[in-house]
Amino acid sequence: MSTSPDRNPAPGLQRTTPAKHYSRSIIFVDEIAKHEPRGTSTSVDIISRDGINWYCQVRCGEQKSRPMGPFTKRKAEQVQDARRTRIAQMGTAWLIFERTGEDR
């Protein structure tokens, strides 16, 4: 008996799928870029585990902000663009990042 990859082999259990990530890098305004840490890449990600609920999160090097959401994908993309614009104009000093558990 072969099992099709489309069928759920255990009724009542949900399949777990990897989260979908869509990132957009930030290009800083020249004046703001002077105050940002060198070599730290900053991006705004939208993430979904189920394709329905989407969350927006800022990554700055190894640091991550708390996810905002849930949103529809369209709304998450709008939030992503708004956050990218604000970070490009104001820098990352106003952001609050979650602790990663690592002491620095």
What does this structure look like?
Residues 1-21 are annotated as: Disordered. The structure is a single chain. Strands 1, 2, 3, 4 and 5 form a 5-stranded antiparallel sheet that branches. This protein has helices at residues 30-33, 73-90, and strands at 20-25, 42-48, 54-60, 63-64, 68-71. It has a domain at 20-90. The protein has 104 residues and is of the alpha+beta class. 21% of the residues lie in helices and 25% in strands. The protein is built from 2 helices and 5 strands, in the order E-H-E-E-E-E-H. The model is unreliable at 1-8 (pLDDT under 50).
Mean pLDDT: 79
Structural class: alpha+beta
In the predicted model, the low-confidence regions spanning at least 5 consecutive residues are 1-8
The backbone outline, from C-alpha atoms, is globular
Order of helices and strands: EHEEEEH
Largest sheet: 5 strands, antiparallel
Please tally the helical runs, counting DSSP H or I stretches of 4 or more residues.
2
What portion of residues is helical? 10-25%
What is the strand tally?
Answer: 5
The span between the termini is 54 Å
How large is the share of residues in beta strands? 25-35%
Question: What is the radius of gyration?
Answer: 18 Å
